[in-house]
Amino acid sequence: MDSQVMVALALSLVGGLSTSLGALFVIINPAPNLKMLGLLQGFAAGLMLSISFLDLAHNAINSIGFLKGNLWFYAGVIFFAVIASFIPEPTLTSNSDMKSKKKQGDDGGKDIMKKHRRQVLFSGIITAVGISLHNFPEGMAVFLGSIKGLRVGVNLALAIALHNIPEGVAVALPVYFATQSKWQAFKLATFSGFAEPLGVVIVAYLFPRSLSPEILEGLLGSVGGVMAFLTLHEMLPLAFDYAGQKQAIKAVFLGMAFMSASLYFLELSLPKDMSL
After folding, report:
1. Do residues 210 and 15 touch, judged by C-beta distance below 8 A?
2. pTM reported for the whole predicted model
3. At what angle do helices 3-16 and 150-179 cross, to 10 degrees?
4. How far apart are CA 20 and CA 50, in angstroms?
5. Which pLDDT score, from 0 to 100, does residue 30 have?
6. Is pLDDT larger for residue 119 or for residue 105?
7. What SS3 class is residue 168?
């Protein structure tokens, strides 16, 4: 294997495994109550929306034009809307319903809690998929940066590592709540970070020969559409249900602001002729 690829793989692992650090912050603390979970789901939804609209879709529109960028974005939306129509999902159950069930008997309360856990687990898996798709082009950026020079690659990998810590939290938290398993939460968050070294391998061995930059940008725009649909269809309803609409909306905008600031500082670490 080429030495440049090895260096890029090592640097991307530093960035990718920082999702594990985010997961550690979750699993060393007790599982949150439903209201706190709803707030953190809103925060994670903000992260996902910021990545979708202000990163992936924005870059696609700038790279391949407004019309093509939008067509790719909405192709992703429609594609996953069709898939989601075939995915069975539990009906949302509000906290007030849960309290009334508990008054009626322990069995009713346990059934409702099981539904809550299934909903949250589904949301955690969705977040892991979305974060993985977002991490993939970051691995490509680390590879291209390391080609320009070790200093550029190291700076970029460290910036991505800091940027990925809250993403690890967003993945691990719902999985930990739903499964009560620290190992499952840690494992899924870690796996979502492995998309970065996978991005290095793809760009090093397949990208130069098989994908044009225009098609790659279009596909990333479609990923943005998928992430936007998943966030609005799955994550926001949970946040509204568990934390209340007003509090959840505040958490969403806090997550968007956090990710926007993170993307900005990440962009500063890139050479002028490179962008994520």
Report:
1. no
2. 0.66
3. 40
4. 21
5. 74
6. 119
7. helix
